[in-house]
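Lab notebook, bench 4. We co-purified these components, and the gel suggests they stay together. Before we commit to crystallization screens, I want a quick structural picture of the whole thing.
Request: model the full complex, all chains together.
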Amino acid sequence: MRFSPLVEQLMEAFRVLPGVGPKTAQRMAMHLLERDRDGGQRLSEVLQVALKEVGYCGRCRTLTEEPVCALCQSPRRDDSLLCIVESPADQLAIEEAGGYLGRYFVLHGHLSPLDGIGPEDIGLDQLEARVAEGGIHEVVLATNPTVEGEATAHYIAAQLGDYGVAMSRLAYGVPMGGELEYVDGGTLSRAFNGRLAFRSE
Amino acid sequence: MRFSPLVEQLMEAFRVLPGVGPKTAQRMAMHLLERDRDGGQRLSEVLQVALKEVGYCGRCRTLTEEPVCALCQSPRRDDSLLCIVESPADQLAIEEAGGYLGRYFVLHGHLSPLDGIGPEDIGLDQLEARVAEGGIHEVVLATNPTVEGEATAHYIAAQLGDYGVAMSRLAYGVPMGGELEYVDGGTLSRAFNGRLAFRSE
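Here is the predicted assembly.
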């Protein structure tokens, strides 16, 4: 015996979620059917609407249901700074850290020739057109500090090289609050080479 | 900045799932919007249909989209045995363990006067009617070995006492493959008192 076909289908459908295996999917299906049908109904409806309405911002490509997102529309941001990130989640992390007041551009991934992901797939033609408009003084290449993220940053830097904008990359070093003992060698060597003059106040 | 309103709503909607906090909900929403819209679409649709169609089996109260579930319809099960469980997941666990060939009755919970859950809420009137029909020789009280599960088993045993059916409860003892060191005192003392004659073959 298994559960009824429809209950089995529901459990199977939950497996599309990241990190959800058979046991968790069963628990989710049981929870909604047994204890929270209203919440399940709402999840189904919001998911339906979000999948239909949410697309990319016409200017920065972040996820939004508007043609242009709220941040791109805001008059309080600095148009001369453009920060390039791999995902909306990265963008949010930078916003929550605070301090950056420029604009963004979201790649939704990184270059990955082996997976057939080329420059157009991550919007680099749109990015170049935006920089070509002028008005941008500095591009912050905030792709992930991974092999693919670095390669993508290098590619973008070369592509935008002719437009006379300053390029920067996030600083590498030891994370705040971490213990040196647990920092990997690559990061530690980068932090050593980029060591800063110590100011005692 | 947060995400756009619709994306925020989607993240909020995922929080109805058990064990899903803000970070996991964000990851789920991002995953479906960025990488698996087809899977999200299917989840939304199956959830919608399941919530609409799946109800309780008219005979055993397990979850099913049929008026009577497949197990209740099966001619190969023993009508003289009835196993009472708290949830469809418990029923599945017993089925997967194998060996039991009788019928089931699913309570969908246990008695909990403080939460306002009384006998009717867990279908005990329906259970009594079923036993009153006759034909059942033994009722296996397989509610959970918790305070509430025990109390519910006692209540049911008292309720069905007049119908002359045998009542049994799952054996208590040490779990297979466990180590005594990590078994709690209550279980160990139960296992000691219920010790079995050792047969060497």
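Chain A touches chain B through 56 residues (CB under 8 Å). Worth comparing against the SEC data before the next meeting. DSSP finds eight helices and six strands in chain A.
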